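Worked example 4.2. Below are the chains of a multi-component assembly; read each line carefully before continuing.
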Amino acid sequence: MNQESEKYNKVINLLKNSKPRLESTEEIENEVIKRIAGVHPVVSALTGILDFLFSWVYIGWVRRSLITSSIALVVIFVYQQGVILNRIDFLSRHTIVIGKENISEQTDQVEKILMNYKNGVRKLPLRTITISEKQMNELIESVNELQLKYKDLEKLIEDDPEIKKLMEKKLNENNRTKI
Amino acid sequence: MIDLELIEQCRGGNFTNFRKLVELTSPYAFSVALRMLGNEAQARDVVQETLVTIWQKLEKIKSAEVYKTWIYRIVVNKCYDHMRRVKRNPEFNVNETTWTMISNTVSQAPSAELENREISKIITVLTQKLSSKQKAVFVLSDLEGMTNDEISEIMGLSKSSVKANLYHARKSISEKVEKYL
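Applying the procedure described above to all two chains together yields the following structure tokens:
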């Protein structure tokens, strides 16, 4: 050990062993109690929640960064939800809702055309043609009614040989096989 | 010994228990404050301010283990504030007489404990040229006997930064000791 470090250690040890003594702690106690009297620890709801969520982080700047980023994420999420809801609302006001239809193999040509039309309507630009679901249902109902009447008519013709003959004759004249 | 139970009792606004907490906390808060500031009156102010801050933020303390680190952090920060104020109004001049007096104190009382006044004077003179950080690291490491990990946590510095500050502080003090004592 050289003289320099010996001197240094001597001084440091002296300072280390000489613990500062706090005289009259009671005076400090009274002064502190006087200052805090009426100042109860107040914890706001937000502080409480943030402490509950981030109390496991002891490094100040890490805790602040986590709080900031989580708040930013929540704000972005709420904003996105708002945008999505607005978009859904906008689309629901401008689209045609198509009801479920069972298209059998015997579907009539008219119904096929109607279905094609229905599908085609969706491709039209918004605000050009607007058909409500009610109007569409009425149209389909009338087509179905027409089909039933057509089937009744066919049955009647089948049952009556005279009418059948007459119809075949008329169809042949017009080069058609069906009414 | 400070335990979580005592801290929790204080949270409820119990002044009697808080007095106990003050009694247990003030000695080591005062020790750090006096060694850092070199002024007994200022050190007492720092202790008071620290205890008021503790009272206001008791909710944040989740375990007794972190309490001591937390207290040291508050004390060091309060000392920084005081040092900044003093820096604007420096009032201590070191002359030959001061060095002779310190030299006599060190040589005459090598094993005896020094008075607060003597401790303040010696530390102030030896650490006068140090930055606040270097001074804090030196006090916590060489005088309070803390590890680099503890200092790093208290001061929010990396371990390498703590080591660098400590190296410069020791070098500066060692040069003064060699030159004047």
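Take a moment to check your reading of the output against the notes. Residues 64-88 of chain B form the longest helix (25 residues). Chain B touches chain A through 50 residues (CB under 8 Å).
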